């Protein structure tokens, strides 16, 4: 008799995006005319095509694969040296951060890495997660058995939830209790907030004092526009001893469908055996990658490398400016509609407070029915997301302008 992993049975049934899909489908089937003017500002997926520098690199790499002399089979599981070196040099050493090429591990996505990292961490850690949060951090912990059951508010027993509210600028403070592993995401999905240097210093200080590890998700790093906002956790002294950083080419280079990301595991980062011995995590992650992963396609790694060429950098800037331009249009529209708005400055998301007394799902239904726009209800990201909705700036400018206009016509 084969047993299944019962942890999966603890996962909340009505997962956010399927539920949104169900409601949108029901609406469009019942209202074919309104369906034709539907604008989706829900899921966080890019809309603009790959930059020309990437397309050129892909073509070159395809031709190489078609010639016996330049064909490549299995590559290094941790990534090709040309890409690890481009990343370490451009994203870290050029900004004064001491990260070696072989501390970069290239992968097929940060979502996968955020889940996979649990392979090399113990099972008895106290885990702290922001509320609201990117659901992947929570669900991957549920799947491996780090939690108990889910309560009616959507909170899992055994996790420490860190509330993110207007009073802390949606950036959680270190808790008074001791935790061992902390997920931080800055700039943040879903709230659009970016942590300041003092806020990250407080976390590094906390982690060093508690011998804890920070899992720092910087998928939206490229969207930081405000001076002084750290682009990496390694800008903070001491972070090499307490932090793993996840970055992705999905949101800067438009690689959501092309798939390439990387994780930084410094060699000086240690965790503890049950006998209290401090051991480096770098060899464990390297072993994990070589055993459970066979590398990102050569073509895709050449495509990612092209993002670091002068043309590639300029084209990425163009994409970011496009999406942040949309965000500014959406922020202005929602404010003109009398709504309280956060985010949209260092991130492609705006986080909007619902009018008083309106729940996140009520706002979703109202905006779908009356404005024919799909947003994401904040409560789907955690109980502290109740009373908010997220609007994604991943769209055409024309759509962002139309959504902005329709939000202002809405009667609550
Ligand atoms: C989009 C996103 C990622 C990137 O995931 P990929 O698997 O690399 O596409 C990571 N973290 C957050 C919070 C995201 O929103």
Describe this structure as you would to a colleague.
The N and C termini lie far apart (55 Å). This protein has 412 residues and is α/β, with parallel strands linked by helices. It folds into two domains: 13-49 and 311-409, Aspartate Aminotransferase, domain 1; 54-308, Type I PLP-dependent aspartate aminotransferase-like (Major domain) (Aspartate Aminotransferase, domain 2, 3-Layer(aba) Sandwich), CATH 3.40.640.10. The longest helix is centred in the last third of the chain and has 27 residues, at 310-336. 36% of the residues lie in helices and 14% in strands. The chain has helices spanning 16-30, 32-36, 52-65, 81-92, 110-116, 135-143, 197-210, 282-292, 298-306, 310-336, 360-371, 397-409; strands at residues 39-40, 104-107, 127-131, 159-163, 181-185, 213-217, 243-248, 261-264, 270-272, 278-280, 341-343, 349-353, 373-374, 376-377, 388-392. The chain has twelve helices and 15 strands. The strands form four sheets. The chain has a seven-stranded mixed sheet with strand order 2-8-7-6-5-3-4, sandwiched between helices. It has a four-stranded antiparallel sheet with strand order 11-12-15-14. Pyridoxal-5'-phosphate binds at residues 44, 109-111, 134, 185, 189, 217, 219, 248, 250-251, 256, 261.
């Amino acid at each position: 008799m084969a047993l299944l992993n019962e942890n999966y049975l603890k996962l909340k049934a009505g997962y956010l995006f399927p539920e949104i899909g169900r409601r949108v489908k029901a609406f469009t089937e019942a209202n074919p005319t309104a369906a034709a003017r539907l604008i989706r500002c829900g899921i966080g997926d890019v809309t603009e095509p790959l930059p020309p520098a990437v397309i050129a690199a892909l073509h070159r790499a395809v031709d190489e694969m078609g010639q016996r002399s330049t064909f490549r089979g299995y590559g290094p599981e941790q990534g090709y040296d040309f890409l690890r070196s481009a990343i370490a040099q451009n994203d870290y050493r050029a900004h004064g951060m001491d990260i070696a090429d072989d501390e970069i591990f290239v992968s097929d996505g940060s979502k996968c890495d955020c889940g996979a990292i649990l392979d090399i961490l113990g099972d008895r850690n106290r885990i702290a997660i922001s509320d609201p949060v990117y659901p992947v951090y929570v669900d991957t912990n549920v799947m491996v058995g780090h939690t108990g059951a889910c309560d009616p508010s959507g909170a899992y027993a055994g996790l420490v939830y860190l509330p993110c509210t207007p009073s802390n600028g949606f950036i959680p403070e270190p808790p008074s209790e001791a935790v061992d592993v902390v997920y931080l995401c800055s700039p943040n999905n879903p709230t659009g907030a970016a942590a300041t240097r003092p806020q990250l210093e407080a976390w590094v200080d906390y982690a060093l004092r508690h011998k804890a590890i920070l899992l720092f998700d910087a998928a939206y790093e490229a969207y930081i526009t405000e001076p002084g906002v750290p682009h990496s956790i390694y800008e903070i002294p001491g972070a090499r001893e307490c932090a793993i950083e996840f970055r992705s080419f999905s949101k800067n280079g438009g690689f959501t469908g092309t798939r390439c990301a990387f994780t930084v595991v410094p060699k000086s980062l240690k965790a503890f055996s049950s006998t209290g011995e401090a051991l480096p995590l770098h060899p464990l992650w390297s072993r994990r990658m070589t055993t459970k992963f066979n590398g990102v396609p050569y073509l895709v790694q050449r495509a990612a490398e092209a993002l670091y060429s002068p043309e590639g950098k300029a084209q990425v800037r163009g994409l970011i400016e496009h999406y942040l331009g949309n965000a500014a249009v959406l922020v202005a529209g929602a404010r003109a509609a009398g709504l309280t708005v956060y985010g949209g400055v260092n991130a492609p998301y705006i986080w909007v407070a619902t009018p008083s007394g309106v729940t996140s799902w009520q706002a979703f239904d109202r905006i779908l029915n009356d404005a024919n726009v799909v947003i994401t209800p904040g409560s789907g990201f955690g109980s502290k997301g109740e009373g908010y909705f997220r609007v994604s700036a991943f769209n055409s400018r024309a759509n962002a302008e139309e959504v902005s206009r329709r939000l202002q016509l809405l009667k609550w």
